[in-house]
Each structure stands twice: as C-alpha cells, then as structure tokens.
Amino acid sequence: MTQATSASLPTNANRFSLPPLLLVAMYGAINFLYAYWTHPLNPFGRIGVDEGWFTVADQQNYLQIAAKLAHGEVSEPWFYGPGYPALAIPFLRLVPHDPFLIPNLVLYVATLALSFRLARAFLSLEMSLAAIVILSQTDQFLSFFVEPWSNVVVVFCCALLLVIGVVPPVRRVVGAILV
C-alpha cells in the first residue's frame, strides 16, 4: 500500500519549473513592457500628437546624436557622449518611434538578472526573488529604465562590477582571466 501511494504522488522531477534566472528575465521583460506601454509619454501612444519623451531636451538629444552617428557624422561636439545613443543605431529603422526601446529592455532585464545573482550570494532563492520583485516595482528604478536615459548603461555596469567583485565563482574566473 505504501509503494502505490508514494508512486502516485508527484515528485519534483515531474513538476514543470523554470530556472530562476530565466524566471527573473521573463518577469523583467513583462514588467518593463507593461510599464513602457502604460507610460503617458510612450512615443507609440502619442503618434499623431507629439513624439512623447523625445520632446524633452535630454531624450531629444540622444535621438539626434544616434541619427547623426548612423549617417557617419562624428565631428560635431555633442552635449552628451555618443555611447548611449550608439546603442540605438541598429534600431533607428526597426523601431523608428523609439529606437531606445530594445536597448533599454535588454539593459533592464540584464540589470535585474545581475541583481538577482548578487542577491543569491547572500539570500535564499525565495528572498532573492522577493528582492527582485520589490526592486522592480519601485517607481524610480523602473521609470529610470523605461524612459531613455544614458545612466542605464552606468547602472548595468555597476551591477556587473558588483557581481564580479562579490560573487566568488565569478570573481575567480575574472581574476584568472585578468592575471
């Protein structure tokens, strides 16, 4: 009787589960896209009205620099550096209303994944997932990535440096490569 009962109970091997990092990436993408589409200055939602957040000076400058770089204009002094606008160049034709959509989405998901990896160095799986949900729901953090801002690259790089410096296996691999 005991064998029949235990054989019919579901085991962990029979359950469908996603790897936690994939779960964080999927959650991040869905969270970002929802916040993007519901943002009042989303350029797609303002077609025929104005250019959304590209009417603001900073975002307008990023877009102009990306367009100039795409046409090979590199001699003009810019108010902002060309690094962040250069990320949008491949998407100027693919997503003309907001060429920063895809780079910002990738940077947001990657930053959440790095934050999750960092949290896992100190917390349980459940607490790490909770930390990611709390971080991702803070308005300032999410808006920071949804609206085009050049600092998203810096935030991603800081998260990457923290993971490299704190997470032991990553630290050992990077140390072996650099030494």
Q: Give the overall form.
A: globular
| Gyration radius, rounded | 21 Å
What is the mean predicted local confidence, pLDDT?
83
Largest sheet: none
Decide which structural class fits the backbone.
mainly alpha
Structure description:
This protein is mostly helical and 179 residues long. It is 64% helix and 0% strand. The protein has nine helices and no strands. Helix 2 (20-38) runs antiparallel to helix 5 (101-120) and helix 5 (101-120) packs parallel to helix 8 (151-166). The radius of gyration is 21 Å and the shape is globular. The relative contact order is 0.13.
Can you give keywords for this protein?
179 residues; mainly alpha; globular
Write a short abstract of this structure.
64% of the residues lie in helices and 0% in strands.
Describe the secondary structure blueprint for this structure.
Layout: H1 2-8, H2 20-38, H3 57-70, H4 83-88, H5 101-120, H6 125-137, H7 139-146, H8 151-166, H9 168-178
Helix pairs in contact: 2-5, 2-6, 2-7, 5-6, 5-8, 8-9
